[in-house]
Design a protein that fits this description.
With 204 residues, the protein is mainly α. Helix 3 packs antiparallel against helix 4, helix 3 packs antiparallel against helix 5 and helix 6 packs across helix 7. The longest helix is centred in the middle third of the chain and has 47 residues.
Length: 204
Amino acid sequence: MFSIVKNIDTLTIKAFNLYEKTGKESYLMRFHFGSKFCAAQIASLIEDVTVGLAGSDNLELQFENEQHRIESYDRISYLSTLYAATYNLLINKTRIDLWMESVGKKPTKNSDLPKLLKKIKDETGVDIKDVDDMNKLQSVIDRWIEKYHERFMMGEKKEPLTFMQIVIGIFAALGMRIEYSMPISDFFDLKKQAEKTAKKKTDE
């Protein structure tokens, strides 16, 4: 089926470089018009280029890291919620019960505390029997927060390489002059070749 949007076999290094620099979608088109009617096809082409530059393995690794980050954050939030709820029942409710007894009223039954303590033990292995054991739970939460910051928050964020920086690096690695008219699909083949060459040198 004919499309007025280029694909990785017809899009050249030069054209995509100009698109990245200017943001003009006309460089992704076979003709210099009609881009506003082809948003989905353009998005698909850019995704193809992005995957080709990153490599599918690298992309899967990024997804796995993001999933791990979300799971770690959710775990910290969950444990923090359990801590707050348990502290409220162990400390605040005890104070309220003492006050109720002092004015001659009967304290209410603490029905939620056993459920919370079981959840904490299942999640962390911490068996809370008194207020002092809450410090153990806090230590577990602190360790999770520390690991989260080490893995996902610390370190200088590097600016991503531009398309042309990647192109220059690949051609230089293979000792070739840049061919601006080369189709993107052929460039991806070169990129794989350069990666294999680099891996071979590393393994030697």
